Amino acid sequence: MDMQDAAERADEMLDSVLSEIEPSVRWVHGPTTMGSCTVTRRRTVMTIVSPQRRGSFLGVVDRFWRKSGYRVTAINSHVDAPAIFVKTQDGFQVSLTVAHKGQVHFDVDSPCVRHSQVADSTSRATAFLDPGAQIIPRPNIHSDFWSADGSGSAAASRS
User: Which positions ≥6 away from 17 have C-beta within 8 Å?
Assistant: First the structure.
């Protein structure tokens, strides 16, 4: 396997986990980086995931990764910045981290592979990112489900 193969494998893993999340979330590509023999692909979720929905979000991802045969290597249960770290059977390290303002990041780090050129991902982002943007902005897309704070559901069901 070379770096391009590893990048394509990482894209497959990212596409798979993001397609598993229902209702779907919108995301953009983060930067691809390369070490001397590794490649990292990143995706950043632009859908606002409220603090009240983060546990559900992480649960969906955790169950999918376990079902896929990934081995959990660490879990950070921090209320504001939870994270899940897993390793695949073929040595890829995959993570979901929740950062400042609840922004969700997915990263896939390859094992050491043969050096090669790496093309941009062919996966189409589902959120718009200004091509001139120097940084990825905070999540800014509302979801009736993922962005909900949970405060209105009980009152709505009583009326």
Answer: 61, 64, 65, 94, 106
Give 27-59 pLDDT, tens digit per residue: 999 999 999 999 999 999 999 999 999 999 999
Number of helices (H) and strands (E), helices first, in the chain? 3, 7
- The pLDDT value given to residue 134: 83
**d(C-alpha 3, C-alpha 153), whole Å:** 47
Cβ atoms of 35 and 157 within 8 Å: the answer is: no
pLDDT value of residue 153: 45
- What's the predicted TM-score (pTM) here? 0.91
DSSP track, 119-142: PPP-SPPSS---TT-SSPPPP-B-
Q: How confident is the model at residue 149 (pLDDT cuts 50, 70, 90)?
A: confident
Residue whose token pair is 């991802």: 61
Taking a C-beta distance cutoff of 8 angstroms, is the pair 135, 34 a contact?
no
- Establish whether the linkage from the previous residue to 82 is cis, with ω within 30° of 0: no
Q: How far apart are CA 74 and CA 145, in angstroms?
A: 27
Average pLDDT over every residue of 105-129: 97
